Amino acid sequence: MRPEKLVLKALRGAHGPLSAEEVAGRIEADGGAGLDVARVEHVLGQLERSGTVAALGGGKYLALRERNLVVGRLSMNRRGFGFVSSPLGDIYVGKRNTGGAMHGDTVAVRVEPHKTHLGRAGEVVQVIERAVTQVVGRFERHGKLGIVVPTDVRIRGDLFVDLASAPADAKPGDIVVARITRYADRRDAMQGVITDVLGPEGAPGVDVETVIIEHGLATEFPTEVTEAAEALGQDIEGELARGRRDVRDVFTFTIDPADARDFDDAISIVREGGGFHLWVHIADVSHYVPWDSVVDVEARHRATSVYLVDRVLPMLPEHLSNVICSLNPGEDRLTFTVDMTLDKTGLVERYECYPSVMNSDRRLNYDEVQGWFDAGAGFPDAETERALQDFRTLADAIHERRVARGGLDFDTVEARVTLDDTGHPTGVVLRSRTEATNMIEEAMILANEVVARHMTAAKAPMVYRIHEDPDADALAQVAVVLKEFGYPIQDMHGAGPRTFQKIVAFAHGRPEERLINSLVLRALERARYVDYLGSHFGLASEAYTHFTSPIRRYPDLIVHRLLKAQLTRTLDKPPTALMVPELEWLAEHSSTMEREAEAAEDESQKVKLVALMADHLGETFDGIITGVMGFGLFVQLENTAEGLVHVETMADDYYRLDAERFMLWGENKGATYRLGQQVRVRILDANVAERRLDFELA
Questions:
Q1: Which among 186, 469, 511, 556 could disulfide-bond with 550, CB atoms 3.0 to 4.6 Å apart, if both were Cys?
Q2: Omega before 425 cis (within 30°)?
Q3: Which of 661, 660, 664, 668 shows the shortest CA–CA distance to 645?
Q4: HSE (CB half, 13 Å, CA atoms) of 606?
């Protein structure tokens, strides 16, 4: 029997995925011709490329039911459809073609031969790996049946439970957690067992707890992790004796949000000749968290800190993130420094990377720094004023240089819901970028680039941050919208960063600015982590990484380890040598967890935003149309709350969809509602559990 058939027979006869070693063992046990592991790996690679076998995490493989399928992770949209990330790009999956798959599942997709208006489309034909193992929802009783209605609308269908096994304290209307025991298929509904009762719908804290569980986020550290972290201490003098660079004599400061509790980056700057000497100091987390330690394994699993509306779920235990690693003012700290000499135009003429010991002289926040700049006065002392003014000048030069090469800047607005002591929303604070935030951003981008270029030049293993060129279909959609708005953009085919710069510049100050920025951002690919060199479209950078936030991002911690090993020429020695083979998986996992964290952060804000608007039922607000569908208009208010004006409430006419012009038009009276149009709406309903707002035109 041919090697391909032997390998497929072994995979198909298994009850789950197998490694190459396990495949070789099954072939030998079945009396087949002996294939060594290397030969099996070669055959598995061939079968994967042909779409016959799917490669899963941890070196496992699974035989597919059909040939020529594409495998990837399904991301469901709250409107019922989804996209599968694959080597072919994103594949659109309609709500009737999900094949029982849920958000986050690894699936095999049969791709349609012809593209749709949404790009490549396909149908899920096999769920390879389940991501969702439990459901959060509203508990209801219907006769002898118990039903859990998922709060996450991306989960299609209800979950049925046996009332005999339901907790006694579970009451209709409670939000509960249910473990899935049977997934839905064409014949049977989803079934499960209630494992926890969070409390009545609308009770304080239940809304955010729901978001946490939906996204599978960890809230507590295992005891052994906390104990290991708390046992860690500092040995500043010992590190200096071992050769760590002492930079405590240089004036140093941090700038962070006013409510920040951990500080992982600090700046030192002096004028030097006609240019500047800039130090970017980053907390040396890798010194305290070695590869495969209990703290590292937990941080690896979490991959990122998560900043929810009412709390932070940190990547590292508090003793590390807020105490011994945080660059608190007046305290000696171990850091990793990127030491740069730049000319007056922001060009890096010389750089050096080294472990260091620093001491922050000032703890500043963005609001106070911006206030001093705006007033031209108020600085706490002459040294702080000198450093900030120099930093301001240099950051402007770095920014101009980055924009000149094609780097993009978006004037995005961040909405943060404010809460009272009970967790009830009281208002919304809109935060825009300022000079103060831009200064830190430019310094961090520069340090990240320097590290990436250094490792590239050294031909060392590395985790990069890449941002691929926009998809042609997405660009075509943007072009249609821009044409409707009268933008002087003739063709978006193959558009580079400079075209996007022109769009953003043209939108600046116009009513539709926020919408245009949002549409352009959606057209761009998501940045992600990879273990190979690739460019970053948004920054117009040939080599980029994340190095500057190791307290809250796991890829930064990896990069610190790799850079330190490269500088000490120990890349081929443990523990780094043990980490390097895992870089591909670590990059992919970090990208996935980043997306999950961002989704959870957005959802936690949204659930409180909906609760806030629930206090304003019947009131009217100004908004802008952000989406036009056959079933109605999506409208975003000035506070960023978004809701649906259902076409059924537009009773003054019979409205039809003009999909090409993103417009609803009245068949009888001729009224039109277009994307970007300003409208006034009334709040009809606010469903907190489903994070849904319903409007009507006022």
A1: 556
A2: no
A3: 664
A4: 19
87 contacts: CB under 8 Å, gap ≥ 6: 70, 72
3-63 is classed CATH 1.10.10.10: yes
Average pLDDT of the chain is 91
Q: Tell me: the pLDDT tens digits for 501-536? A: 888 888 888 888 888 888 888 778 889 999 999 999
Output the pTM of the full model.
Answer: 0.85
Closest CA to 285 of 275, 296, 277, 274: 296
Quote the CA–CA distance of 544 and 466 in Å, as a whole number: 7
Hey, where are the domains in the chain?
3-63, 70-129, 134-201, 223-466+531-602, 472-524, 617-697
pLDDT band at 32 (very low <50, low <70, confident <90, very high): low
- The C-alpha angle 624, 308, 314, rounded to 5 degrees, equals 150
Ramachandran class of 491: left when φ > 0, alpha when ψ lies in -120 to 50, beta otherwise? beta
Fold of 70-129: OB fold (Dihydrolipoamide Acetyltransferase, E2P) (2.40.50)
In order, the DSSP letters of 75-100 are EE-TTS-EEEEETTEEEEE-TTSSTT
CA distance 164 to 560: 54
User: 617-697 sits in which CATH class?
Assistant: mainly beta
561-589 pLDDT tens trace: 999 999 999 999 999 999 999 999 999 99
What is the rounded average pLDDT of the residues 125-146? 88
Provide the token pair at 524: 């761009």
User: Could you tell me which residues come within 8 angstroms of residue 497 by beta carbon, excluding any fewer than 6 positions away?
Assistant: 406, 407, 408, 537, 538, 540
User: pLDDT tens digits, residue range 422-468?
Assistant: 999 999 999 888 999 999 999 999 999 999 999 999 999 999 999 98
Residue 70 in this model has a pLDDT that exceeds 90? no
Distance (Å, whole) CA 385 – CA 362: 11
Is residue 2's pLDDT more than 70? Answer: yes
Helix %, strand %, coil % for the chain, to 5?
35, 30, 35
DSSP-derived secondary structure for 506-571: HHTTSTTHHHHHHHHHHHSPPPEEESS---BTTTTBSS----S-TTTBHHHHHHHHHHHHHHTT-T
